[in-house]
Amino acid sequence: MKIFERAIHKQLYHNLVKHKLLSQFQSGFRPGHSTSTALLDVSDYILKNIDKENLTGAVFLDLSKAFDMIDHSLLKIKLAALGVRGRALAWFDNYLSGRTQSVIANGIFSDTSDLSLGIPQGSVLGPLFSIYRIYI
Asked: pTM for the complete prediction?
C-alpha cells in the first residue's frame, strides 16, 4: 500500500506544484523547505518592515491535531475541484472511507466507531492534504 500511496503522492504533488496551488510559504513536507526556511521567511519579512519603519505584528498558532479534524466529504469536494475525478476520486473515497477506531483502557476495548474525520496516521499522502486549506 505504501508503494501505491507514494505513486499517488508523486502525481498529486506534481499537479499541485505545476498549477501553483501550494503557497510559496508552505514549508512543511516539501523538498528544499523546512522549519528553518519558514523561520528565514518570517525573519526576512520582519527585517524589511523594520527597515521601512513599519510596525509588524505576528500571531503564531500551533494547530495540534489539525490532520485529525479534516472532514472527508469536504476534502473530496476540494480534490474534485482540483481536477481529481473518476477512478482517482473513487480511490480517494475508498482510501478515506470505512475506517474505524476503538480505545483500550484498563485492558477493555470500547465499541468501534466510524471515522468521518481525519487522515490515516503515518500516511504518505497525509501531508499533501494541506490542500484542505485552499479556498475553493
From this structure: 0.66
Per-residue cell: 75: 476534502
Q: Digits of tens for pLDDT over the chain (136 positions)?
A: 778 888 888 888 888 888 887 777 777 777 888 888 888 888 999 999 999 999 998 887 777 777 788 888 888 888 888 888 899 899 888 888 888 888 899 999 999 988 888 888 778 887 777 666 655 5
Grid cell at residue 120: 490515516
Q: What are the C-alpha distances in Å from 32 to residues 7, 19, 78? A: 20, 19, 26
Strands (E) across the chain are located at 100-101, 104-105, 108-109, 113-114
In contact, 95 and 36? CB cutoff 8 Å: no
